Amino acid sequence: MIRFATPGDVPDILRLIRELAEYERALHEVKATEAQLRSRFFGDDPRVHALVAEHEGRVVGFAVWFLTFSTWNGTHGIYLEDLFVEPDVRGHGHGKALLIELTRIADERGYGRVEWAVLNWNAPAIGFYESLGARPQDEWTVYRLTGDSLTKAARA
User: What pTM was computed for the model?
Assistant: First the structure.
């Protein structure tokens, strides 16, 4: 079962975020708290959204997404920040159902694209995405300012 997250799902979402970070060898980088997630997902002006996947009444997966905008197309899009399903229930279609639900949301709302990033070494995820028809955008390189670099640029 795929559904929009509710405030009661926040502890499970944070648990799954930590599991994802551990899988990506970056658990030490998780700083998010339940209070932050609750505020961002369910505050006065939410700008980020979450879907959850349930298996036998338990939250076992999630997708966190937000809107983008294409100046060339003149339409919004969905950026999938994270998609994760617990390893013990993979293969039951939860990941595919989460991604398909995002495509339905995009299609129903007239959005022009659904996009995301995947770690180069994550062959299982790459294979999964490509099996759905997704193609890498390898002519683009992602850049990021964070931490001290962000602060330095902001104060320049």
Answer: 0.92
Question: Which pLDDT tens digit goes with each residue over 28-43?
Answer: 999 999 999 999 999 9
Q: Which long-range contacts (CB under 8 A, 24 or more apart) does 114-118 make?
A: 114/77, 114/78, 114/80, 115/68, 115/77, 115/78, 115/79, 115/80, 116/79, 116/80, 116/81, 116/83, 117/142
- Give yes or no: 143 in active site: no
Walk me through the domains of the chain, giving residue ranges and CATH numbers: 2-154 (3.40.630.30)
Dihedral sign (CA 2, 47, 30, 21): positive
23, 79, 111, 129: the catalytic one is 129
